[in-house]
Amino acid sequence: MKNTFSFIDLFSGIGGFHQAMTHFGGQCVLASEIDPHAIAVYKQNYGIDSNRNIREIRNEDIPNHDVLCGGFPCQTFSKAGKREGFMDQIRGTLFFEIARILESKHPKYIILENVKNLAGHDGGNTYKTICATLKGLGYRIPAEPLILSPHQFGVPHLRERLFIPGIFDPDNVDIPLDISFKGLKTKADNSIYSIVDDQESDPRYQLSEHTIDVLNAWDEFYKGIDVDVIGFPVWSKYFNNAAIDPSFPEWKKQFVRKNQDLYKRNKAFIDKWLKRWNYLSDFTPTERKFEWQCGKAISSVWDGVIQIRPSGVRVKKPDTFQALVALVQTPIIGKYRRKLSVREAARLQSFPDSFVPDSSPQMAYKQLGNSVNVLVLEKIFEKLLEMGK
Ligand SMILES: C[S@@+](CC[C@H](N)C(=O)[O-])C[C@H]1O[C@@H](n2cnc3c(N)ncnc32)[C@H](O)[C@@H]1O
């Protein structure tokens, strides 16, 4: 079907599905999105106006198409009364919009995407209803939730997502679609340096002097203490021998005890370290906490991937990046002493370097965090095409 198929891109965002479908020669005949910033990025990259609320598109205005794509928002369905059909159970939700288009157009293929937790959402009821609806509309789908992450295909991004591929085959809806992959990679098979640029001079990605100080302080701390593997969060405010607050829950008492033990064993070094860094008085409460999550894999903060999170300065091995999600602090690439660039974030979603992101980095990170990994979609679609022959 190369060069000859059409697709519609629902909840189209910045076009993760668009990228994957056009890779196979697909032509987009309709896109639907309501976020003005995402609409602008879509227009600039693909020349298509996606500015349409899916709820307002009538079936008769939707062109015929071979593939329906949609990374739809997850919503709870009504607990159905016994006599309600599936279309009634899902009425009012955005999944309903997908279902009513399928009912009217029955495209041959579907690929839907959602967060992994959709499989367990509302005690499994949501996913069960989605599957039953799709089968009721004539689609063969996998028997089990298909959960995949880009790192399994060599893209250093840990992002498990639920995918629902389907083929219109009303006579065989009870034969599950067997979509599986051999030779999937593990987290440890990956390296962030496969997508990271060694040169990046854009000042927007450079670290402030203050952040460099915070990271230097913790680097010195890690190198000075008597253990390589710290199996608990380091909370510098408990570097003392004070009595533990009895009102703390047991898990917290244990962490405080471990911090006090660490302090006791390394008192001479830690006292000197605290003094040298002005008792961390210039640090925010977050910056006074440290989480070393690399075991013995690396021996310096500057060799890790760093995220400054509410729980503290977290250092991880440079094998993968945590899932890009909207609103989370941009990771720092220790080796290059800078933040992940927008171009690199786009690579984590397997967008080609020709993709033009939003001009505001904050907006671009958010949109990429809402998007979908293009390579994973391509891998799934390749299988779907094979099975649908
Ligand atoms: C999880 S994101 C999907 C992103 C997309 N797959 C991509 O590659 O960027 C869901 C999108 O649905 C859009 N959306 C929410 N309600 C909508 C509606 N009623 N009609 C069209 N799009 C809608 C949101 O603005 C959001 O961009």
Keyword list:
alpha/beta, 31% helix, binds S-adenosylmethionine, 389 residues, 11 helices, Rossmann fold, elongated
Structure at a glance:
The chain has 11 helices and 13 strands.
Task: Give a verbal description of the structure.
The chain is of the alpha/beta class and 389 residues long. The protein folds into two domains: 6-185 and 368-388, Rossmann fold (3-Layer(aba) Sandwich), CATH 3.40.50.150; 198-340, no CATH class. It contains eleven helices and 13 strands. The protein has helices spanning 16-23, 36-46, 86-90, 94-105, 125-136, 209-224, 250-265, 267-276, 342-348, 361-370, 374-388; strands at 6-10, 27-32, 67-71, 109-115, 139-140, 146-148, 161-168, 234-235, 289-293, 305-309, 312-316, 332-333, 338-339. Strands 1, 2, 3, 4, 5, 6 and 7 form a seven-stranded mixed beta sheet that branches. A six-stranded mixed beta sheet has the order 8-9-11-10-12-13. Strand 1 (6-10), helix 1 and strand 2 (27-32) form a beta-alpha-beta unit. Helix 1 crosses helix 11. The model has no long low-confidence stretch (mean pLDDT 94). The protein binds S-adenosylmethionine (SAM). The site of S-adenosylmethionine has 21 residues, from helix 1.
Task: Outline the secondary-structure elements.
Layout: E1 6-10, H1 16-23, E2 27-32, H2 36-46, E3 67-71, H3 86-90, H4 94-105, E4 109-115, H5 125-136, E5 139-140, E6 146-148, E7 161-168, H6 209-224, E8 234-235, H7 250-265, H8 267-276, E9 289-293, E10 305-309, E11 312-316, E12 332-333, E13 338-339, H9 342-348, H10 361-370, H11 374-388
Parallel strand pairs: 1-2, 1-3, 3-4, 9-11
Antiparallel strand pairs: 4-7, 5-7, 6-7, 8-9, 10-11, 10-12, 12-13
Helix pairs in contact: 1-11
